[in-house]
Amino acid sequence: MRPLVFAANWKMHVGPPEAREYLRAFFAAGEIPHERAVWFFPPAVSLEAVAQNVAGHRNVVAGAQDIYWEAKGAFTGAISAPLAAQAGARMTLIGHSERRHVFGETDEQTGEKLAAALAANLQPVLCVGETLAQREAGETTAVVTRQLVAAFAGHSGKRHVTIAYEPVWAIGTGRNATPKDAAEVHRAIRGWLKGNAPAVVPFVILYGGSVNLKNAAELLAEHELDGVLVGGASLDPRGWAQLVRTAVA
Ligand code: PGA
To answer: Which residues have CB under 6 Å of ligand 1?
Structure first.
C-alpha cells in the first residue's frame, strides 16, 4: 500500500473543549492504519488542545491554519510560526484559498510565510489552485505555477514542503475535481518542483476541494494524489475516522 496523508482543515470550527471531545470520538475507532498519516489543522485557539490529545498517537500531528511572517512584535491578532510551534504545531497551511480570496493574501506574502514556517521548523503545506474563471480561461497551469514561483522565491535548500492542490471552485461547493483533472494538475506541479525546487523532499501533493466519504476512494485511486486536504467532511469525528480508513485500489 502506498503511504497517504489525510489532512483535516477545521477552518473556523471546533473550540478547545469540542476538540478534546472530537479526538476522543476519533481515536475510539482505533489507531489509524500504518501507512497513513493524519494531520489536524484546528483554529489557533484549539491548537494546544489538539496537539496534547494527539501526542502519542503514531502518525497524527497538529498544525496551524495560518501564520504571520514576523517572528514576534506588535501585530495584534496575528500568530507567528514560533508561537504556533510553542502551542504544539508541527506544520502549517500556507496560502489557503480563503486566506488569498477572503483576506486578500498575496503570492508574495505566501513566500514570506513559507520562509517563516521553515525558519521555525514548521512543515509548510502550501495551498495552490485556480478560480473557476481561470480554469475556464485555460489558465490553471499558469496560475498554479505563478503561485509556486512566488512561494518558493529564494528557497533552494533541502526542505520538507507539502503542496495541496485545491481548485477554488471545488472548495466547499460539493463539486470536486475529477480524479483525472486533479491528476493533470498534480503532474504539472510535480514537474515544476523537479525542475525548480529539486531539494524539496518528498514530493507530497494533496488534493483538496469537496472530498468526502463518497468520492475519496475514487480520487485516491489516482496515484498522482498522495492524500487529501478536507474541510467540511473532516468535522464529524466518526465520518473522518471512516474517511482515513478509505480502502484504496
Ligand atoms: P472542503 O474544504 O473539503 O470543505 O471543500 C477543503 C479546504 O478548504 O481545505
So the answer is: 9, 166, 171-172, 208-211, 229-233
Ligand 1 pocket test target in 211, 214, 215 with most atoms within 8 Å of CB? 211
Which cell is 61 given? 500531528
57 catalytic? Reply is no
Do the beta carbons of residue 162 and residue 123 sit within 8 Å?
yes
Extents of the domains making up the chain: 4-244
Separation CA 67–CA 135 (nearest Å): 28
Q: How many A from CA of 103 to the centre of ligand 1? A: 16
Calculate the average pLDDT of the chain. Answer: 94
pLDDT above 70 as % of the chain? 98
**Number of other CB atoms surrounding residue 57 within 10 Å:** 14
User: What's the CATH number for 4-244?
Assistant: 3.20.20.70
* Per-residue confidence (pLDDT) for residue 155, from 0 to 100: 65
Over residues 164-170, the mean pLDDT reads: 95
Residue 137 alpha carbon to ligand 1 centre in Å: 23
Look up 166 and say whether it is catalytic: yes
Confidence of residue 25 (pLDDT cuts 50, 70, 90): very high
* pTM given for the model: 0.96
The pLDDT value given to residue 109: 96
Contact present, 197 and 187 (Cβ < 8 Å): no
